[in-house]
Specification:
- The protein is α/β, with parallel strands linked by helices and 370 residues long.
- It has one domain: Alpha-Beta Horseshoe (pyruvate-formate lyase- activating enzyme), CATH 3.80.30.
- The chain has 13 helices and 18 strands.
- The chain has helices at residues 17-25, 37-47, 51-55, 116-129, 149-152, 154-163, 200-206, 213-225, 243-257, 275-284, 307-322, 337-344, 351-367; strands spanning 6-9, 31-33, 58-61, 69-71, 84-86, 89-90, 95-96, 110-112, 135-138, 168-174, 191-196, 207-208, 230-237, 263-270, 272-273, 295-297, 303-305, 330-332.
- The strands form 4 sheets. The chain has an 8-stranded mixed β-sheet.
- Helix 1 links the parallel strand 1 (6-9) and strand 2.
- Helix 8 runs parallel beside helix 9 (243-257), helix 9 (243-257) packs parallel to helix 11 (307-322) and helix 11 (307-322) packs across helix 12 (337-344).
- The radius of gyration is 20 Å and the shape is globular.
Length: 370
């Protein structure tokens, strides 16, 4: 269990059914009403040496202002996968040194948005307005999908919801290992459970509070055994001395646990960050070595490994993975057309082209009952 020590609640939500369930799961913790949120944030930032670390121990439960389901913002001039982001939580109780959220969010608290009925209405609207398109939705962009899910309970409602939909699937992305609450749900193959993977060295040094590699893979095996499609994300790929041995062993261990025929997709993405994030991360984690690689600014302003390093890493990962199954569906996250061409010898060309390939994959894997 993560070291949560305080709950703040928006008073208007106190009788909401989802909030009542969450509070029951956090019943041992002191709670207070949210007064002025900006004052709470200012107090935390001004009084704590590391407000991000402290904020991960405090839960805010509040309404979300605006739409809860949004398009992935993508990156200009890069191919995006066309994902739909579900905002039921922002921030994460884990504390990865490279986490983009520590340089992106202006609210350091673990924040829950419990009005799930609004989420489902927005998803219904998208699916009904576009009955001939297929959409992928996920909760893992602004927080870990499963880290607090045993308490938050979103998946227990969302998995059955998506089981009844013909043109949408849910993806739960995580570095956690708690999946028991998923194993009895009737998912009908319409929920993909995905794990972010890195070599054990990176997990131990830079993915603080996350499950160990073996724990993640054992959890994935449990989900495989009850029929969930599985996804895996090697993102960020970290270039470090010995990276080849580390990632090759990770791939080998993955397929000791998992049948590659049950893997619906695998993604790669090289380490990338804004210059400000690098500064924040090195201040919070002065012993981290992951930013010591050859990172240069790209056209989008983010620091990335130089192209030859990224291409080499992607090509070798593809070869190691395809040695287990040449038909694995592998894609690149936020890369340009020319990088796709060098890695695979082809490119989807556009975000729309990649999204079409996802639709074909899902139709083969899920809709045909693979």
């Amino acid at each position: 269990m993560f070291p949560i020590k305080q709950v703040y609640l928006e008073p208007s939500l106190e009788t909401h059914p989802s909030v009542q369930r969450i509070l029951q799961g956090l019943g041992h913790l002191p709670r207070a009403h949210i007064g002025n949120l900006n004052s709470l944030i200012d107090e935390l930032v001004s009084c704590q040496q590391d407000p991000w670390k402290e904020g991960k121990q405090i839960i805010l439960i509040r309404s979300y202002q605006g739409r809860l389901v949004k398009d992935c913002p993508g990156t200009r001039d890069h191919i995006c996968c066309g994902y739909k982001i579900i905002n039921v939580m922002s921030n994460c109780p884990m504390d990865c040194s490279y986490c983009i959220l520590q340089g992106y969010l202006n609210n350091p608290f673990l924040t829950l948005y419990p009005e799930f009925e609004k989420v489902f209405r927005e998803i219904e609207d998208i699916l009904e307005r576009h009955p001939h398109r297929f959409f992928r939705f996920g909760t893992g962009e602004l927080g870990d999908s499963l880290a607090l899910d045993g308490i938050v309970g979103f998946s227990s409602e969302a998995v059955p919801f998506f089981a009844s939909k013909k043109n949408g699937v849910l993806e739960l992305k995580t570095k956690a290992s708690g999946v028991d609450h998923l194993l009895t749900l009737d998912h009908k193959g319409r929920t993909v459970v995905s794990w972010s993977l890195n070599p054990s060295r990176i997990i131990e040094e830079d993915e603080h509070m996350a499950a160990q590699l073996g724990e993640r893979l054992r959890a994935a095996r449990l989900c495989q055994d009850v029929g969930y499609p599985l996804g895996f994300h090697f993102d960020p790929l970290i270039h470090y001395p010995g990276w080849e041995e580390g990632y090759r062993k990770t791939v080998d261990l993955l397929f000791e646990y998992i049948d590659p025929r049950r893997v619906i997709w695998i993604s790669f993405g090289g380490l990338r960050c804004s210059p400000s994030l690098k500064h924040v991360a090195q201040g919070r984690f002065p012993h981290t070595r992951i930013f010591s690689g050859e990172l240069i600014p790209g056209k989008d302003g983010k620091l990335r490994y130089v192209k030859p390093i990224r291409v080499e890493m992607y090509q070798k990962m593809v070869s190691w993975l395809q040695a287990y199954d040449k038909d694995l569906f592998i894609y690149l996250c936020m890369e340009r057309d020319d990088v796709w061409q060098e890695v695979f010898g082809w490119s989807p060309k556009t975000t729309g082209g990649l999204n079409k390939r996802f639709e074909e994959r899902i139709a083969h894997f899920v809709m045909e009952g693979k």
